Amino acid sequence: MANQTSTVVAQDVSSPATSLIQVSAALCVIIILILGIAWFAKRFGFTPRHSNARGLKVTASVTVGQREKVVIVDVENARLVLGVTATQITHLHTLPPAIPDEEETHADGSPAPRKPQSFQDALKTILKRQGKQ
User: Which family does it belong to (predicted)?
Assistant: First the structure.
């Protein structure tokens, strides 16, 4: 008698649910990878941090409504108080350029870096100046 060997071939029985799980998992991995690369680029400075507007610097800002702000912008030889909304920018007042304090100097006479003024203090200064005029 001859020995007969039979081989059983296992067939992969895949249901639509397992295919859906595999596709969903791959999509989640790709999305997480994209978010991780974006975070890495932002964290380590691969994205621009400064705007292209040279000579402009927002010194102070306060939100006065849901989409409204009042900002103080330093320009070359003046400071502008601007009202900013979602649709327009309105010039509210022009201030003289900021004068560096004489007290804030190093021992060698060079000026020390200026501490940023809070918006509240800047607004109080503006209101005091307008009251005296």
Answer: Belongs to the FliO/MopB family.
Distinct helix (H) and strand (E) counts, the chain: 2, 4
pTM: 0.41
Q: What is the mean pLDDT of residues 70-88?
A: 90
Domain ranges across the chain: 15-49, 57-102+121-132
Rounded distance, CA 64 to CA 123, Å? 13
Are 113 and 101 spatial neighbours (Cβ–Cβ below 8 Å)?
no
Give the span between the Cα atoms of 76 and 80, in whole angstroms.
10
Q: Are 126 and 60 in contact (CB under 8 A)?
A: no
What is the reported pLDDT for 120?
A: 79
Q: How confident is the model at residue 47 (pLDDT cuts 50, 70, 90)?
A: low
* Residue whose entry in the numeric block shows the structure tokens 């989640």: 28
